[in-house]
């Protein structure tokens, strides 16, 4: 798979101290109002839910790195003004769901991802469906690698999982695999139709 949460933002280490939840929420709310954006407008521009943005502004949730990145772009805030907060949360008993076909789509030249349960922030696991469009490893410029571990279940079609230290692994519907994400990897469909998989990433 390709990394879903980009890490091209400035490293957290560049920041001396992150604001607490109240300060972060006020910072985002003030910036949104300065731009004359409603909650709905800002949330839509950042591709997050209105309720998620409201919770962030009111310090009722801790946003993930990806949501921080989107808000930075939407509100034209610089890295020193917004920081990734700890993925640990004091909130318990959380729940999120995604209705069939209503996940958040992210498409690349080789994969078409549908992110699931995106309203729930600070998740330790990242679940999503993917359609494998690639048909040959030459379509990948380089190995895909990122931190964490991954579980993959082939839902339909057939594919080959290429990994850096192992022989190519042919897989078909019902097959599963678990591997280190830091090991170079990529998938290509080998069936007439694009293979569909469920991926669960743990960072």
Topology:
Blueprint: H1 21-34, H2 39-45, H3 50-57, H4 65-75, E1 104-107, E2 111-115, E3 125-132, E4 149-156, E5 158-163, E6 169-172, E7 176-180, E8 185-189, E9 195-202
Antiparallel strand pairs: 1-2, 2-3, 3-9, 4-7, 4-9, 5-6, 5-8
Helix pairs in contact: 2-3
Please supply descriptive tags for the structure shown above:
26% strand, 203 residues, elongated, RmlC_Cupin_sf, 4 helices, three-stranded antiparallel β-sheet, 20% helix, alpha+beta
Q: Let me know the average pLDDT.
A: 82
Q: Which structural class do the helices and strands define?
A: alpha+beta
Count of helical regions: 4
Give start-end ranges of low-pLDDT stretches. Answer: 5-18, 79-88
Work out the radius of gyration. 19 Å
What spatial form do the alpha-carbon principal axes imply? elongated
Give the CA-CA distance, first to last residue: 13 Å
| Strand count | 9
Description:
The model is unreliable at about 5-20 and about 80-90 (pLDDT under 50). The chain has helices at about 20-35, 40-45, 50-55, 65-75; strands at about 105, 110-115, 125-130, 150-155, 160-165, 170, 175-180, 185-190, 195-200. The two termini are about 15 Å apart. Strands 1-2-3-9-4-7 form a six-stranded antiparallel β-sheet, with no helix packed on it. A three-stranded antiparallel β-sheet has the order 6-5-8, with no helix packed on it. The longest helix is centred in the N-terminal third of the chain and has 14 residues, at about 20-35. The chain is elongated and about 55 Å long. The protein has about 200 residues and is of the alpha+beta class. A hairpin with a 5-residue loop joins strand 5 (about 160-165) and strand 6. Helix content is about 20%, strand content about 25%. It is built from four helices and nine strands; from the N terminus they run H-H-H-H-E-E-E-E-E-E-E-E-E. Keywords: DNA-binding, Plasmid. This is HTH-type transcriptional regulator. InterPro entries: Cro/C1-type_HTH, Cupin_2, Lambda_DNA-bd_dom_sf, RmlC-like_jellyroll, RmlC_Cupin_sf, TransReg_Diox_bact_type.
């Amino acid at each position: 798979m390709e990394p879903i949460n980009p890490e091209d933002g400035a490293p957290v280490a560049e920041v001396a101290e992150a604001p607490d939840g109240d300060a972060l929420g006020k910072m985002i709310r003030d910036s949104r109002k300065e731009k004359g954006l409603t909650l709905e407008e800002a949330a839509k521009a950042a591709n997050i839910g209105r309720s998620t943005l409201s919770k962030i502004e009111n310090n009722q949730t801790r946003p993930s790195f990806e949501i921080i990145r989107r808000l930075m772009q939407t509100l034209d805030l610089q890295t020193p003004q917004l920081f990734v907060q700890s993925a640990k949360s004091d909130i318990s008993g959380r729940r999120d769901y995604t209705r069939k076909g209503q996940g958040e789509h992210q498409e690349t030249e080789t994969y078409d991802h549908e992110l699931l349960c995106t309203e729930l922030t600070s998740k330790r696991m990242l679940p999503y469906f993917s359609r494998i469009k690639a048909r040959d490893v030459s379509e990948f410029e380089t190995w895909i690698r990122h931190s964490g571990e991954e579980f993959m279940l082939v839902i339909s079609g057939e594919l080959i999982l290429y990994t850096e230290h192992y022989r190519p692994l042919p897989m078909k519907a019902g097959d599963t695999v678990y591997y280190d994400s830091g090991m170079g990897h990529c998938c290509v469909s080998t069936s007439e139709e694009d293979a569909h998989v469920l991926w669960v990433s743990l960072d």
